[in-house]
Amino acid sequence: xxxxxxxxxxxxxxxxxxxxxxxxxxxxxxxxxxxxxxxxxxxxxxxxxxxxxxxxxxxxxxxxxxxxxxxxxxxxxxxxxxxxxxxxxxxxxxxxxxxxxxxxxxxxxxxxxxxxxxxx
Length: 120
Description:
The chain is mainly alpha-helical.
């Protein structure tokens, strides 16, 4: 498991270095995720090599979001002033995200069925 952590953090850190070195407008951690995805797609890195640690991180995602959520308490006055606008935006963006996700999943399922020659 320690080796898996080193692989994931090493790839993430390389993304940070690349982002800083080339002054890219995207965060280094996102660049690291692109690198990880690329390595998985071209099969340089296998899912089995990082599966345990990835599942652990996904299972404990709540702890990763706690510090930013607590930091929001510093801006409680700003949040109170635009409460209804913020709630509206949260509901709207959630609906857009759910709709888009449903559309994409449906498209991929239909594409897979056409590719395999099966029908419902």
